[in-house]
Write a structure and sequence with these properties.
By secondary structure, this protein is an alpha+beta fold. The protein has one domain: Alpha-Beta Plaits, CATH 3.30.70.100. It is built from 2 helices and 4 strands; from the N terminus they run E-H-E-E-H-E. It has a 4-stranded antiparallel β-sheet with strand order 2-3-1-4, with helices on one face. Strand 2 and strand 3 form a beta hairpin. The longest helix is centred in the C-terminal third of the chain and has 18 residues.
Amino acid sequence: MFTSIRKYSVRRGSAEELARRVQESFVPLIRQMPGFQSYYLLNGGPDVLITISMFDSVDAAVASNEVSANWVRNNVLEFTKGMPEVMIGNALIAEVK
C-alpha cells in the first residue's frame, strides 16, 4: 500500500470552505482512481491542512498527486499559499480495526 501525504498552507479563515469543496468535488474524483484505498483530510493546526491518500501502487499514488495538483489549480488555488509539500511512501505497517 502506497501513501501520498500533502501538506497545504492555507489562507486564514479558508479551511472550512476548502474542506467543503474537497468533499463535494475532489473526493468523488479520487475515489474513482484505480487502486484507491482511502482518503483523509486533516486539520494540521492554524492555516494548515494535511491530506492522506492510500493506493495499491506507487504509480497510483503518483497519479493521485497529478490529479490533486490539477484540481487545486482549477478549484481552490485562491485559498492556498502556493502548492503543497508532497511526500509518497510505501506503508511498512498499516493496521486497521
